[in-house]
Amino acid sequence: MNKKTDIKGLTSAETISFIQSLNEKPFRAKQIRQWVFDRGISDFSEMTNLSKTFRERLADTANVTELEEADRKVSSDGSIKFLFRLHDGKTIESVWMPEENRATLCVSTQVGCKLACGFCMTGEGGFERQLSTAEIVDQLIQARKLVPGGRVTNIVFMGMGEPLDNYDNVLQALKVLTEPDCGLMGARKITLSTAGVVPGILLLAKDFSKIKLAVSLNAADDATRNKLMPINKKHPIAELFWALKKWPLPKGRLLTLEYVLIAGINDSDDDAKKLSKLCSDMPVKINLIPYNSASGAQYKSPSKKRVDTFMKIASGRGLIVLPRASRGQDIMAACGQLRGKRS
Ligand code: SAH
Which of 22, 68, 205, 304 is an S-S bond match for 85, by CB 3.0 to 4.6 Å? Predict the structure, then answer.
């Protein structure tokens, strides 16, 4: 049997071509896309403005991926962590974080992760498989159905997995999410975070630089970064910064560098000085994230005083540093705590 076409993974133009291949008029594509993206309908038989024979034809040749909510945990800070089950039984997590003037959805791009960063729980379980474009996009569509008021104003690609290690599906998901005809999300409302996959950064700079880019730096020298993030041995800091300089930043904008502060590893006064020196000629701001611990973890969170001192030293030397409070710590939904298993 031929593989069915997943409508949720298609751009507007691709949907039109597909519909034409079934000998139907192009405007039918728009009707289908409204059902799928605006109304969250996945069953062709419910698309009542299409003829019965066309609906049957669609059911034979196409499908619409739908993630199943397997579990949810609600944090005392209002965040919700969803566990979604995929068609093959594997599970991923997405986290919804409401604030006063926005509500951000953190989406996953892989089941597991290949990068094995020592401080991140997603990496601990290894890699299982890539998410399809539709599985990435549907995290938003399902979240809109499940959260109060359907309120999601921003998306961050910061959940399970390394987005640039699933380049084709992630790029296609960015295109689908930002298609004007279904209006799911504006490109400037999307941030993609990478651990530093240099070839992916260079490709994305050419293919889709309308989104915001964030990079998990986490150390200001190669020796420390090698220990924390094995990918640094392949793409060391100098190469990473060379690639970042090629990112076409709009005027007045800054790239975000995430820096997870880990007690005794990368949080000394000297580390703060090294970080500001390293970034002195870069258009960046630093998101400082105190390490979130997990049971059995080998690392420790820094004290509040250490975080403050680190910030003072780095910002005293001209760096823009923003402390970032991790949301959903009580439900294991904070940065680095996602693993896609029921816990
Ligand atoms: N692979 C991508 C996307 C995941 S983003 C990337 O690395 O950018 C996940 C973010 O959480 C990264 O910035 C990472 O540095 C951070 N993180 C991972 N483990 C953490 C932990 N235990 N405590 C705090 N932040 C953590």
Answer: 68
Cα(96) to ligand 1 centroid in Å equals 16
Give the pTM.
Answer: 0.97
Task: Please tell me whether residue 21 adopts helix, strand or coil conformation.
Answer: helix
Per-residue confidence of the chain (343 residues) as pLDDT tens digits?
Answer: 568 999 999 999 999 999 999 999 999 999 999 999 999 999 999 999 999 999 999 999 999 999 999 999 999 999 999 999 999 999 999 999 999 999 999 999 999 999 999 999 998 889 999 999 999 999 999 999 999 999 999 999 999 999 999 999 999 999 999 999 988 999 999 999 999 999 999 999 999 999 999 999 999 999 999 999 999 999 999 999 999 999 999 999 999 999 999 999 999 999 999 999 999 999 999 999 999 987 777 899 999 999 999 999 999 999 999 998 888 999 998 898 898 775 5
Q: Is 120 in the pocket of ligand 1 (CB under 6 A)?
A: yes
Cα 206 to averaged position of ligand 1 atoms, centre (Å): 25
Cα angle, residue 276 at apex, residues 274 and 279 outer, rounded to 5° = 105
Token duo for residue 286 = 């630093």
Q: Exposed, middle or buried by CB within 10 Å (0-12, 13-18, 19+), for 40?
A: middle
Q: Which CATH number fits domain 68-342: 2.60.120.1440, 3.40.50.2000, 2.40.320.10, 3.20.20.70?
A: 3.20.20.70
Nearest atom in ligand 1 to the alpha carbon of residue 293 is: 22
Pick the residue whose CA is nearest to atom 17 on ligand 1.
336
Q: How far is the CA of 160 from the centre of ligand 1 (A)?
A: 9
Residue ranges of domains in the chain: 5-63, 68-342
Enumerate the active-site residues.
93, 335
**Who contacts 60 (Cβ-Cβ below 8 Å, separation ≥6)?**
none
CATH classification code of 5-63:
1.10.150.530
